[in-house]
Design goal:
Strand content: 15-25%
Number of strands: 14
Distance between the termini: 52 Å
Number of helices: 14
Radius of gyration: 25 Å
Mean pLDDT: 86
Amino acid sequence: MHGKGGMNGSITKSLTASTASNGSKTGKSLRKLKSAKGKTVDPLDWGMPGHLTEEEVEMKFKEELSKRDEEFKSTVFSFGDLEGEAYCLTRWLRARKFKYDDVIAMVEEAVQVRADARKHDFYPDPVQALGCEPSVFMAQYPQLYHGHAKNGCPVFISKPGVLNTDGMECITTLDGILKFHWYIMMHDYKMRLQKHKEEHPDFVNFQTVTVIDLEHLSTSQLSQRALSIVKTQTAIDSVCYPETMNRTLVINAPRFFTMTWAIVKGWLDPRTASKVELISSRKSWEARLRELVDEELLPSDYGGKGTATTETLKKEAPEGVIKQHHELVYVRSSGHVSVDIPAGGHMEIKVFSRSPAEVTISVVDESDKTKEIVPPVPFQHTGGAEETVQPTSLVITKERISGPCTVRVKIDSKGGRFSTAGNYMVACNIYSEK
C-alpha cells in the first residue's frame, strides 16, 4: 500500500467525491471555504476526503511516495495501514495548504526529527523513557485519554493548571519527557486508534478531541521549564503528526490567559482558530462537552456520568498497587511527609531528587516517633546539575511496611540547622501483597 503504483481510481474518487455539504462541482478551491453558490463549508471539512476538488488532489504526492525509501513512507503512515491511504495523505496535504513542495519538505523534516527516536523504536518501555513510573509523572502533570467523542476521535484531557514543575524536575529530565512523548504517540495513542478502528471499521478520522483544563493556573507556573516542555512537544506533533487535532476546548481559563488568547487568535489562520474554543464558564463548557461526547462516556468531573478522571489516572499505577501517595517535600534542615497505610496494605517508599546535599531518610511510627521502622538511609544526588542528567532515586524500604498504621517519612540534612537541602519527591506505592 505504501508505494506501489500510482493513484488508483478508487482513491481518486474518495478524495474528490462531492457531497451535499460542499455543494460544489465547479473545481474551485475549497481553500476559500465557499461553494460556487456561496454556501459556507464547515472549516473542519476542508481538505477531507469527500470535500476535495481535482485541483486539491495531488497525485504527485502518492507517486513520490512510491519512489521514496521505507523511512519516508513510515513517517507519512506513522499510524499504520488502518488509517486508510486517502485520509492519511490528506492530513499531510492539509497541513501545508496543498502546496506540494511544502508537503515534501515537511515530511523530510519529520524524517529527521524522528530519526533518533526511531533508532530506539520510539521507546516502547515508558518507565525506561521517563526514568520513573508513569504514575509518578502523571501525579505531577495529570493527562489522560478517556473514551471517545461522538465522532469516534479519542478524547484527551490535559491539566496544565495543576502542573508541578518542581516535582517534575525531581523525577525526570526534559529529554525523558520527550522520550515519553514519543512512546505516547507511537505506542499508546497509535494502539488506541488502531483498536478503535478494528472495533469500528467505519472510523476514519485519526484525530483527537482535546480538553485543556487551566483550573488553578497561575503566572508562576509558566516557568521557562514548563514552556520548554510544551514548546518541544508541540513542535514534534506539528511536524510529525500533522492535522491530528480535531478540536480543542480550553476550559477554566484565568483572566490573564483569556486576554492573551484574544491576541494570539488573531495570528492564526481561520481554520486553525475555528478548532480552538476558549470557555471559562463551567456551565457552558460542560454543556459543550456533552455535545461532543456521550454523557455516559464523559467523566463525572467534567459534566458526564463516566468514570472520574482521578479514578482513571489511578489505573496508571504499577500492577498490584491499590493506593499511591506522591508528595514533594522541601527540605531546609529537615522535612517530612505522613502516609496512612490501610489494613491489608503493604507500602514501598521511593525517593527522587536532584539535590547534591547529603541527607538521611528514615521512617518512624507517626503515633510513636521513637519507634523506628526504617533506620536512616544516606541519600545524595551525585550526577551533576546538568538538565540531561537523570535525577537520583532510591527505594528506602528493604521490606514493605504493613498496615494498618500511619508512618512519617523523615528527611534530615547533614548540613546543619541553617542549611537548605532542596526538593525531594516521596513516592509511596501500597500493594495488596507483601
